[in-house]
Amino acid sequence: MAATISKDILTYNYSKLEGDKVICEMLATEIIKHLPEAENKIWHGHPVWFLEGNPIVGYSKQKKGIRLMFWSGADFEEDSLSVKGGKFEDASIFYNDVADIVIGDLKRWLEKSRAIQWDYKNIVKRKGILERLK
Questions:
Q1: Which of left, alpha, beta for 53 (phi over 0: left; psi -120 to 50: alpha)?
Q2: How many other CB atoms are found less than 10 A from the CB of residue 81?
Q3: In the structure, what pLDDT confidence band is assigned to residue 130 with cuts at 50, 70 and 90?
Q4: β-strand pairing of 46-51 with 65-70
Q5: Does any domain span residue 35?
Q6: Is 126 a domain residue?
Q7: What CATH number did the domain enclosing 41 receive?
Q8: How many domains, the chain?
């Protein structure tokens, strides 16, 4: 299976201002490189990668910068990922410059995103209850 970035994600990245565009392109390239088996598409308006239909990682433009979010990141035990909320198991980091992206950290988080997963795919069916998959 050839790992490629979807046309819609390329369009999303290209639509950003230059600094944000470079960050988005770097994130997409690294995610594809380390999660080649993941399906990628625009989901709820933002680039998201899925393993077996379960959202794993994505990014979006927000006021604070480009937010890289891991759906199960709260369990990664990574100080650099600030946990958002308490109801879900997501964690994220914001980038305002491509130089802020530490490739070694990103690679480690992407490996953890494959190994540690909560079942977001079936959250509606379970009426908002998350169950651990891995």
A1: left
A2: 20
A3: low
A4: unpaired
A5: yes
A6: no
A7: 3.90.1150.200
A8: 1
Q: Describe the strand order of the beta sheet including 82-83 as a list of residue ranges.
A: 39-43, 46-51, 54-62, 65-70, 91-95, 82-83
pLDDT digits over 48-77, tens only?
Answer: 999 989 999 999 999 999 999 999 998 898
- Strand ranges for 1-134 from DSSP E: 39-43, 46-51, 54-62, 65-70, 82-83, 91-95
Q: For residues 81 and 92, what is the distance between their CA atoms, to the nearest angstrom?
A: 5
What is the DSSP pairing of strand 46-51 with strand 91-95? unpaired
Give domain status of residue 100, yes or no. yes
User: For residue range 5-43, what is the model confidence (pLDDT) as tens digits?
Assistant: 999 999 999 999 999 999 999 999 999 999 999 999 999
Residues 120 and 96: beta-carbon distance below 8 Å = no
Kindly tell me the sign of the dihedral angle through the C-alpha atoms of 125, 54, 28, 100. Answer: positive
Q: Which domain holds residue 68?
A: 7-115
Nearest C-alpha neighbor of 47 from the set 72, 27, 77: 27
| Pair 58, 35: CB distance under 8 Å | no
Residue 95 placed within a domain = yes
